[in-house]
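Appendix B, record 7
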Amino acid sequence: MPAVTDGGVGRRIAYYRSVVRPKMTQQELANAACVALGTIRKIERGERGVTNDTLQAIADALGVDPARLRHDRGPAHSQARDALPALSAAIAAYDCPDDGPVRPLAALRTAVSTAAQWRLGAQYTRIVRDLPDLLTELTRALHTAPADGRAELAELLVSACRSADAAAYKLGAHDLSARLVELMRWAAAEAEDPLLVASVAYVRTETFFAARAHAAGLRALRMAIDAAPAPSTAAARAALGALHMRAAVIAGRAGDADGASEHLREAGELAEQVEENVYHGTAFGPDSVRIHRVSVAVSLGGDHVSDALDVSHEWKPPTSIPEERRSGFYIELARAQLWSGMADGAFESLKVARKIAPQHTRDHPWVREDASTLRRLRRADSETLTSFAEWCSAT
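Structure tokens (predicted):
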């Protein structure tokens, strides 16, 4: 892959690392960008070049536009978005994969688990880089597996597709996301696991969000709730509770305040019976329900927005919550603050979201909209706000 070899890139990385608040150490930058510490040191000293993918990851970790780190300061392109066609090609022939090698099941489990961690951590560049080959390998393995080995491979394929879908949906490739969801539904049926089917129904709601078909999405979720297994175990309670959480949000988007309140109540009761954790790929528990209270309030808008502010006054999501969900909380909170005339608070929330999950924040349409609004509201130009708006490509 092409690499930027200009020594000034390292100096600019070191500069921006020293001016972010709070100042980042090289180790902190390495952790945030998922790059080896030795690599960061060599890049900053000008001893090695940096690939476009690595530069994108470093820029996201620093919260700056990659163009600010490049020699030519040319227009920046999202490396994750540019790689999306490879994901599309990987699933085009899911029912007739080509011949090729397949790793042992243990290795496939590890690869799928790693991809799931990238999804929860909003590491979309890594997902689109590695998932095309993994999806191809999993479909190949599934079609060549004996009957008694298909169920686990189908479950692994669902998880891998979900990771790929997270990147596709968050990067705005909604048609690709819908195709991945349909592949998940097909594979979940192969796995014959009702809890897995419920988790896919949760994810499927994205297609209704993208199409703004909120009433239809609510019907689909209520059908999934009716079909879900009885909540006799922690995993089953979490699966049902997650469906109610999702139904509450889409009911809010549909303007159904009573329905949203009822689903949120059901989710809250189920959440009190489990520990906060990730179940079948979905975070669920008391903290996740609190986050969805904010989302429901913002979805309903109007007088309900104060409910989102009430949650934020008394609680903040702990670091044990996956990065994607935590950053989503602050993105939603920023919108509630902006609507309530709290422009400074909204900008602070957006900056927190960026620090938690830069890739998720950068490509979120609400972030761009709200950053643009904040720039219009400010009478005096703010260099920090301008830099943030340029980073997320706000107009």
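Remarks on this record: Residues 112 and 156 are 6 Å apart (CA to CA). The radius of gyration is 21 Å.
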